[in-house]
Amino acid sequence: MKMHLQTTDPTAAVTSTMSADLWNSAASVLDTNWSYDHMVPSRRLYPHQWSWDAAFIALGLAYVNPTRAWRDLRSLFEAQWPDGRVPHIVFDPLTAEGDYFPGPGFWNVPAYGNRPARGSTGLVQPALHAVAAWEVYRRAASHGAACAHEAGQQLKWLYPRLVAQQEYLSRSREAGGDGLASIVHPWESGLDNSPSWDSAMAGVPADLGLLQRYQRRDIEVADAAHRPTDLDYARYLGLVLNYRDGGYGDADLAHRHAFVVECPAFNAILAAAELALVHIAAVVGADPMAHRRRARQITEAISRHLYDERSATFRARDVRTGILSPARCVNGLVPLLLPDLPRDQVEAIMAEAASPRFGLPATTGLPVPSYDRTATDFDTLRYWRGPIWINVNWLLRRGMLVHGYRNEAEDLRTAMLRLVHRSGHYEYFHPETGAGIGAPTFSWTAALALDLLADRSVPAYARAA
Ligand code: DGY
Prior knowledge:
single chain; mainly alpha; Glycosyltransferase; globular; disordered N terminus; binds (2R)-2,3-dihydroxypropanoic acid
C-alpha cells in the first residue's frame, strides 16, 4: 500500500488567528445549515434532520446559539415514536421527495402521536443525545442563574424522552439476549459502509434489481467513488424493505431479519448516555441510581461479549452467528468512553490507536482514520472504509480524557483543529493527504470544531457522580 502521510508537526500550536478564523467559519456553516426549527447536516446531500448529527451539532451550537441547540434536540424528540425509538431521519415536509433518496415515500412510516404519516424513518442511530443535552446544560449553567433556569426547563422536557429512548434500545433491541443493543441496518451505526459490517452483510441478499426500481440520489450529488457501492446499496434497500414490511417491529429479530449486529461504538454511546442521565436525573429531581446501574451493565456486556482476546481489540458481533467481525475499525476504539472499562482493555485500545493501523497524530500528524491503514482493502476515499471523520475522533478524545491520557487527547484535539482549518468543514477527510471529501459545509464538523476550540475538558466530566 502507498503511504504518503502528511507530516504536520502534531505539537504545533493552534494559533489565535487560526482559532478566530475557524470559529467564524464554523459559526457561519451552522447559520447556513439552519432550517426554521432544525439543522440539516448538509444542504444538498442530507436535506432533512439526522439523529446523531443533531447530538454532535448541539455540542457546538451550545456556544453560538444555545436556543437553537435546544430547538434542534426538541425537533428531533418531537418525532419520537410511541415505543421510544428516535428516528434516524426526521423528514422536513418542506423538502421535496426528489431531493433525497430514500425519502418519506420509501419508508412509508404510518402516522403516530401527533405526527402525520411519512414523517420519519423507522431506524435509529447512536443515542448520543443525553450526552449532548448534558453538555449544552453544563455550558448554560456556567452563564448565570437565568441561563441555568432555562436550560433546566429544557432538561426536564427531555429527560423522560431520553429515558424512553434508552429503554427502547435496551429492551426492544436486545436481540442477542446478552445486555447489548443490536442494530438492524448499517445506517443505524452511523458508520454506514464500515468494513465492520462486511461479514454480516455477506449474508444479506443483494437484489440489484432494486436499483432499477429506485434511483440513488447520493451519487448524483456526490462522487460515486466516495460513496457505498451499488452492491452495498442494494442490500441497504433490501434491509429497509424487510424491516418496513414487518411493520418496523422488533420481535424475534435474530430469526427474521438478515442483519442483526452489536456494534461496540453504538453500545458504548448507549452506556455513556446512561452516565449523562445520572447527572441529568440529579438536576430534574429523578433517581440517578438506575442509570448508574445500567451504565455498568452495558460496560460489562461490551467488555465480555465484544472483546477479542487474541487480537486485543473490540469488534462488532453478528448476533445471528455469534461471530465477531474480523475487521479492525474505528468503532472498536469508542469503548474508551467508558470509565469502568477494565484497565487492560483501556490499554489495549490506546495501543491499537497508537499502532500503525490507526496512527495517533504523534506518528501521522492526522486524526485517526475510520479503518485499519494496514488492511489490504483500506480505501482512502470511500466513506467509512478509510477516510477520517471528526465525530469519531471527538469521541476518542473524550475517552482519552476520561482515562487521563491528557497529552494524547491534546495532540488529537490539535490535529483535528489543524486539519479542519487547513481543509475546511468537510464531511470527512482523505487519510493520507488530509484533503476534504464529501459535503463541503458539514454541520457536525463545524459544531465539533467549536467545541474543540472552546476545550472545556474536565477530567471527571464523563464519570457518574
Ligand atoms: C445516507 O443517506 O447515506 C445516510 O447515511 C443514511 O442515513
